[in-house]
Design a protein that fits this description.
Blueprint: H1 2-31, E1 59-65, E2 70-75, E3 80-85, E4 90-96, E5 101-107, E6 112-117, E7 122-127, E8 133-138, E9 149-153, E10 156-160, E11 172-176, E12 181-184, E13 199-201, E14 204-208, E15 223-227, E16 232-235, E17 252-255, E18 258-262, E19 275-279, E20 284-287, E21 299-303, E22 306-310, E23 323-327, E24 332-336, E25 347-351, E26 354-362, E27 365-374, E28 379-383, E29 394-398, E30 401-405, E31 408-409, E32 412-413, E33 417-422, E34 427-430, E35 440-448, E36 454-461, E37 469-470, E38 474-476, E39 481-489, E40 496-505, E41 508-511, E42 515-518, E43 568-577, E44 589-594, E45 600-604, E46 610-617, E47 619-626, E48 633-639, E49 643-650, E50 660-666
Parallel strand pairs: 43-49
Antiparallel strand pairs: 1-2, 2-3, 3-4, 5-6, 6-7, 8-33, 9-10, 10-11, 11-12, 13-14, 14-15, 15-16, 17-18, 18-19, 19-20, 21-22, 22-23, 23-24, 25-26, 26-27, 27-28, 29-30, 30-33, 31-32, 34-35, 35-39, 36-37, 36-38, 36-40, 40-41, 40-42, 43-46, 44-45, 44-47, 47-48, 49-50
């Protein structure tokens, strides 16, 4: 007790002495003429809540990235991080992380966010970005439809069939994003909606299965194939017996020139995890390993050489959040990170190596959410929401833009078309060609890299919309228009070439509009002959023959020959893989077609890639080379007297490179 009293006494004594010292010092300052002001802070108004933002369950950690004005909130119970836009005070993204996230660290110099996952013993690293995507409304379809087939062929979105609110339709329409217009094409052979996805192989649209109500009460097993080159439909081999009378509601992925198709609905009870593959080369189906989860009306797409199937209905038709990935190399499935929410009927798209699941439906509610899966991180994020909530919309990607068409919601069946673009995507504008000669030209354009390291190049070819050549590249940076000028050579004389500029960055790839130029004629004139007569005429002939007579007439020939005599030639060479060691490609189909005559010559490459076309008349030809799993080569070839050797360099269907041809020698 005495000790306690003593300590209190000492404390009061020290405080009193300190106060006396302060008064003494103030007196000294005042005597010396130094002004001193003592400010008593005013009492601030009590803080108030200006906004309330809904995030995940049990938010436990917050981090602020001042360079992007993004706030990161770790949601302990949800295993997610909510990303808030500090300017708008809204959640712009939800990211899946590890178990029990409870700490957030920010490196604003690298724009990386670090999230400590307490129960996982891991740290999730998030790449921050100040840019997001924007949506724009485009020209609506002329016919409202949902659950339609859709695919992109040479920068055109094809939407086939669908449900118009009363039943299936046969309507086929094509959307051209350059002109923002729709055109109506040949109707499907039968009604079709809710097919087992859609795939594009060698420039043709494949539509497997689907319902055809009111024509019947069960899904079909028909495979419809549309060829834009002829505007005609055909049928492939029917789907296998395992799907009973037919299938619907599945997903399709194209890998190596083959159609991988899930078949969940058969019109009876339950839903199924079956997977089949269709090979156009043999027109035959085969059964593969079933998926670990059922996916009815999922979002789907191919990334690299793997088939991603997300969400949809489970074995009972209940909306699911499961993501399964199929690897055809091993015929195995792997289950990856679940979607942030259960959804059925989302539109699927693949852009920049990521899977997009757009919109969807759950128990009477329609959604406009956009979930994005990154395979490299096995994580989902949320992108800018679509303006119109909907289910069963058709989707496709053209030149770095996602297009979403049709669908349905509480208002009914939709014809609405909306397009999603990244604000940081490079802007590419095609310019005019300069320095055009008989075999070369300089292609020009501008690119705005929008602050990201960007690579630019040109695609070109002799057919509009089909680019068989690729120029060298030019690096672009900064946030203003940069001139891109790249020379191309090895062109054919007196030929029209079509070209466009392309630019690629971490945000994606964009393309300029198509332009054209025509090469000049060759500087060597075939007539008159460049070899003078050994016995010259006493007076020159005003229009000499291309083959001078050994005893020329003193007057000009009344009908000089201007076209060499047509002779038969041989076109031969090798078909090779344009990657790595240029390995030979066997069983490639080569076809020459005379541009003026319409006559064709065909050949098939052997095991060593060699092919030979004999008795080819002189003239101009279009040349087509096809091989399943590779991009079609389409070009033009001038055949003159003698033999012509060429190499056809084929590019893999899933790569960015294009197939091309090079002339080795003319004999």
């Amino acid at each position: 007790m005495k000790n306690t009293f003593f300590r209190q006494y000492i404390a009061r004594f020290i405080a009193l002495r300190q106060m006396h010292l302060v008064i003494f010092l103030l007196s000294l300052f005042a005597l010396s003429g130094v002004g001193v002001s003592i400010h008593t802070p005013s009492v601030a108004a009590a803080p108030t809540v200006t906004a309330t933002i809904s995030v995940g369950s049990n938010p436990a950690g917050v981090g602020v990235n001042s360079s992007t004005n993004h706030i990161y909130v770790a949601n302990l119970n949800d295993r997610t991080v909510s990303v808030i836009d500090g300017a708008a005070n809204t959640v712009i993204s939800t990211i899946s992380v590890g178990y029990n996230p409870n700490g957030v660290g920010v490196n604003s110099s690298t724009n990386r966010i670090y999230v400590a996952n307490g129960n996982s013993n891991t740290v999730s690293v998030i790449e921050d970005s100040a840019s997001g995507g924007t949506w724009a409304t485009k020209t609506s379809m002329s016919a409202a439809r949902s659950l339609a087939a859709a695919g992109v062929i040479t920068d055109v979105l094809y939407v086939a069939g669908g449900h118009d609110g009363t039943g299936g339709t046969t309507t086929l329409q094509a959307y051209n994003p350059t002109t923002n217009t729709w055109s109506t094409l040949a109707a499907m052979p039968g009604r079709r909606y809710l097919p087992d996805g859609t795939g594009v192989i060698d420039g043709k649209l494949y539509v497997p299965g689907g319902w055809n109500y009111p024509d019947s009460g069960l899904p079909t097993n028909t495979l419809f194939v549309y060829d834009p080159a002829t505007n005609q439909w055909s049928t492939g081999a029917p789907m296998p017996q395992q799907v009973l009378y037919g299938s619907a509601g599945g997903a399709t992925g194209v890998i190596g020139g083959k159609l991988y198709v899930t078949t969940p609905e058969n019109g009876y009870s339950g839903y199924y995890p079956y997977l089949h593959v269709y090979d156009p080369a043999t027109n035959a189906w085969s059964q593969l390993a079933s998926s670990p989860n059922v996916h009815d009306l999922p979002a789907f797409g191919v990334i690299g050489s793997k088939f991603y199937v997300a969400g949809g209905g489970d074995a009972n038709g209940t909306p699911s959040d499961k993501l399964d990935v199929y690897d055809p190399a091993t015929n195995t499935w792997t289950t990856k990170a679940s979607m942030p929410a259960v959804l059925r009927g989302s539109a699927g798209a693949v852009m920049n190596g990521k899977l997009y699941a757009i919109g969807g439906y759950v128990t009477g509610a329609y959604y406009n959410t956009v979930y994005v899966y990154d395979p490299s991180a096995d994580t989902w994020t949320t992108e800018t929401s679509m303006p119109t909530a909907r289910y069963g919309a058709a989707g496709g990607v053209i030149n770095g833009v996602i297009y979403v068409a049709g669908g349905s919601n509480s208002t009914g069946t939709l014809a609405t078309v909306e397009a999603f673009t990244f604000s940081s995507l490079p802007t590419a504008t095609t310019g005019s060609a300069t320095n055009v000669t008989s075999n070369s030209a300089t292609l020009n354009g501008t690119v705005n890299a929008n602050g990201l390291s960007t690579t630019a190049w040109f695609n070109y070819g002799i057919a509009s919309g089909s680019y068989t050549g690729t120029s060298t590249t030019q690096s672009v940076s900064g946030s203003s228009d940069t001139t891109v000028s790249i020379g191309v050579s090895g062109l054919s004389s007196s030929t029209t070439y079509y070209y466009r500029i392309a630019a690629s960055s971490s945000a994606g790839t964009s393309y300029g509009s198509e332009a054209s130029f025509s090469t000049t004629s060759s500087s060597v004139t075939p007539t008159p002959s460049s070899t003078p007569s050994t016995t010259p005429s006493p007076s020159p002939s005003p229009t000499p023959s291309s083959t001078p007579s050994p005893a020329p007439s003193p007057s000009p020939s009344p009908t000089p020959s201007s076209t060499p005599t047509t002779t038969a030639s041989k076109v031969y060479g090798y078909v090779k893989n344009n990657y790595g060691s240029n390995a030979p490609i066997a069983s490639a189909k080569i076809q020459l077609r005379g541009i003026s005559t319409g006559k064709t010559k065909k050949a098939t490459s052997g095991k060593d890639g060699y092919f030979e076309l004999n008795n080819v008349a002189e003239g101009e030809y279009s040349i087509w080379v096809r091989k399943t799993g590779y991009k079609i080569y389409k070009g033009r070839l001038s055949v003159e007297a003698g033999n012509l050797e060429v190499d056809i360099m084929m590019a893999k269907a899933r790569g960015r490179a294009v197939s091309s041809m090079r002339i080795i020698q003319a004999e």
